[in-house]
Design goal:
single chain, alpha/beta, two-stranded antiparallel sheet, globular, eight-stranded mixed β-sheet, 44% helix, 10 strands
């Protein structure tokens, strides 16, 4: 039986590269591309099929920042499939950052220059938007839309006949200092991307506590410094080319999900000689905070579903 793998944000960037590598590893997959734009999804599907004609590739339309879209997509996936073996929760946004040039120049001559270039810590500020559902856009896209998708797909993921896995595309930029449990949407901050990635790390830990006994395992991965639309918005392409090589990660796909440490983030890296490897980094979080955050998301889920149902009843 073919494994069924779902990838969100599959039409470009990390998601597109991930799909290519997954098919190189196993062209017997049923790969489902979950994309916001149907035309771009079809273009990605055609390109993947051209490279791997024997593959079975389908697409589903979903905008993870739009809760109605997430619910529609989940219903469609439940109609199509009886199982999901792996979901890569990769779709995400980062508001156009404003670079603090003075902080960059000072940092280049500090002892923390490598850390600064890897994480952009102290260099960027961002301005978030609010979605039609009344949520902060970065939180809705990077965290809550995916949380809702997982909740709706639990019947396909927790089948009881074998382990399934979730893999979240996180970041080295996920910093505890930028996250507040009292403001988990980051309405009052200036680094919503970092906050959302830390929230993602917390959520992965909480999901393992809740769903491991039902055969679902969650892992957090950082693909390294990638040349995508997000990074091009910070510095020109030629600067990134000088700073870092392109790094990639499909290592998690080969591992038994139950063997991975739920409190570690798996990072893709490149040695000075150009060889790639994976290293595990302990996440700076505690399980109690993860548990409280999970319950906050459950409360938000109940609230937004009630709001949507009320709006539907009035229309």
């Amino acid at each position: 039986m073919r494994k069924v793998v779902l990838v969100t944000g599959a039409s470009s960037g990390v998601g597109r590269a991930l799909c290519q590598r997954l098919l190189q590893e196993d062209d017997g997959l049923h790969l489902c591309l979950a994309c916001r734009n149907p035309d771009r999804a079809e273009a990605a599907r055609a390109a993947l099929l051209a490279a791997c004609p024997s593959a079975q590739i389908t697409a589903v339309q979903v905008d993870v920042s739009d809760l109605r879209s997430v619910l529609r997509a989940a219903a469609e996936l439940r109609r199509r499939f009886q199982r999901l073996d792996c979901v890569y929760l990769n779709a995400g946004i980062m508001p156009q950052p404003q670079l603090d040039v003075s902080a960059l120049l000072l940092g280049l001559f500090s002892r923390k220059v490598i850390h600064m270039l890897c994480t952009a810590e102290g260099l960027l500020t961002q301005h978030d938007k609010v979605t039609a559902d009344g949520l902060q856009e970065v939180f809705a896209t990077n965290v809550f839309g995916h949380f809702l998708l997982v909740r709706e797909l639990e019947p396909l993921l927790c089948r009881g006949d074998g382990p399934a896995r979730l893999v979240w595309t996180s970041s080295r930029n996920a910093r505890k200092a930028n996250f507040s449990l009292q403001d988990f949407q980051h309405r009052g901050g200036q680094e919503p991307y970092s906050s959302s990635k830390y929230a993602m790390d917390l959520l992965s830990v909480a999901l393992n506590r809740k769903l491991n006994q039902r055969g679902l395992y969650s892992s957090v991965a950082c693909p390294g410094t990638m040349l995508t639309n997000m990074t091009y918005g910070i510095l020109p392409a030629f600067v990134w080319t000088l700073l870092m090589p392109i790094i990639w990660l499909v290592w998690l796909f080969r591992q038994k999900p139950e063997s991975l440490d739920p409190l570690s983030k798996y990072l893709s890296a490149t040695s000075g000689f150009g060889s790639t490897y994976v290293t595990a980094q302990q996440m700076d979080l505690d399980e109690d905070t993860a548990e409280r955050f999970y319950h906050s998301l459950l409360e938000l889920e109940t609230h937004v579903k009630a709001t949507l149902q009320g709006a539907d009843a009035q229309s």
